[in-house]
Amino acid sequence: MAPAESKLLLTDRAISSSNHVPSNYIRPVGDRPNLLDVESSTSIPLIDLHGLLGPARSDVIKEIGSACRTDGFFMVKNHGIPEEVVREMLRVAREFFHLPEAERLKCYSDDPSRTTRLSTSFNVRTEKVSNWRDFLRLHCYPLEDFIREWPCNPPDFKQVVGEYSKHARALAVRLLEGISESLGLERDHMVKAMGKQAQHMAINYYPPCPQPELTYGLPGHKDPNAITVLLPDSVSGLQVLRSQKWVAVEPVPNALIINMGDQIQASNMDMNSLHQTFVPFCNESNTNKAFLSVFPQVLSNDRYKSVLHRVIVNNKSERISVPTFYCPSPDAVIEPAEALVDDDHPLGYRSFTYGEYYEKISNEKEVMP
Ligand code: OGA
Ligand code: NI
């Protein structure tokens, strides 16, 4: 646990300092967000999941497939998480970050292996420039293994966040089923491939920033997991890369934002982009082949992508977002599905565990620790 007098978190510093971003948050000139050079005329698709339960299921599945292929990001409405549960989740998140610093610091740790921890920026152990974000990171599945270690303050934190995380898991599973079907696979294929499965949550807190043109809330990154369900508040900030342009994703009331992580990654990339995503495994390989991800059946269909996204901050409002990262369990073995290996598609990748992938990528790249 951190000593209470140290100023490890951004929140209080940001609130107390007025006009300037401290120098360790300032990006080099070529790596700053150009706040004006952003597409706001288009956005990502919005899919109504209501039809998933009835005769229109196959139409919704097609929409999901198409959004995964073309954008890697989409929004969903009628997603099944009650409005009250969502509202409460955001309330308790805000209350947590408004607690006195000494109270919040009880949860502080910069050790990414801790299953419950409050930290700041992105990956404080590897990054050179800090980011304008504090975050609380929680493991959520199986819930009973972790809920005891969650914060006790606000007093209803465990109950409210536990409730939200159960709903978020149910939604992630429904989406993975839809994604499996959209690829012509058995409905439970993806979920089964994730072994015992795991679910992590981040509660991101971006304080107002006096010079948002100099820094990021989160720099461009891809999520290393399988699928992310993001609950945004009403303040904009998320941008996704499409055709080399940053597209602003404006929050839509009652909609959640979904994106594919590295584990649902396309394979029809050239070797360079493949290397960018899977550098650690490529370096290790003596061949010219990268080691790919958990859902090679997806890969072989050459379709779905894990897309670069980032968060910019603003000088007016704090912003809160709550991503749920749904992932394979650390011991899940990642290897091509047998059915996909034939004379035309010979086995090209050694198998590895998700834990191994995650460990390497956290040490070597700017990814969510
Ligand atoms: C993340 C992320 C987006 C947001 O936490 O990985 O991309 O809007 N968050 O906060
Ligand atoms: Ni992300």
TrEMBL record:
Pfam families: 2OG-FeII_Oxy, DIOX_N. InterPro entries: DIOX_N, IPNS-like_FE2OG_OXY, IPNS-like_sf, Oxoglu/Fe-dep_dioxygenase_dom, Plant_2OG-oxidoreductases. GO terms for molecular function: dioxygenase activity; metal ion binding. Keywords: Dioxygenase, Iron, Metal-binding, Oxidoreductase. The keyword Oxidoreductase applies. Gene3D superfamilies: B-lactam Antibiotic, Isopenicillin N Synthase, Chain. Belongs to the iron/ascorbate-dependent oxidoreductase family. Residues 197-328 form the Fe2OG dioxygenase domain. This is Naringenin,2-oxoglutarate 3-dioxygenase. It comes from the Eukaryota.
